[in-house]
């Protein structure tokens, strides 16, 4: 009676090891931004932790605007300082000018440049206004709606 249990456990244990071995390593912030270049605009939300008031407010504002974010190719990247590697923290401070542990919202264009930065939540209308003024966004709209400007 014990033998079938051991057999099932051994198979189950093997599956756990197999699944664990196939789990991809999380990308660094820099790798994520590099992979998004020319593909997505990135709205990077940085906060000390998920309970921070501005972070929660920004997420709530964006929740109602998901279709508009998708239409503008915006990837929302949540960055919590208390979960970052030292390399990620250095990248954020040196390359993006963030000041941990303060909240920050950065809109990064498809070209990799910072287009908008705020230490307060950004209303979606302001975010979309910034995106819609970008030359690349205007070109995208021309391609999808021929004859319109």
TrEMBL record:
Any one Pfam family match given in the protein's UniProt record, by short name: DUF4174
InterPro entries referenced in this protein's UniProt entry, alphabetically: DUF4174
Domain DUF4174: 33-140
Keywords for this protein: Signal
Stretch list, region Disordered: 113-149
Residues making up the signal peptide according to the UniProt record: 1-26
Composition skew (Basic and acidic residues), residue ranges: 130-143
Protein's UniProt name: DUF4174 domain-containing protein
Lineage, opening ranks: Bacteria, Pseudomonadati, Bacteroidota, Cytophagia, Cytophagales
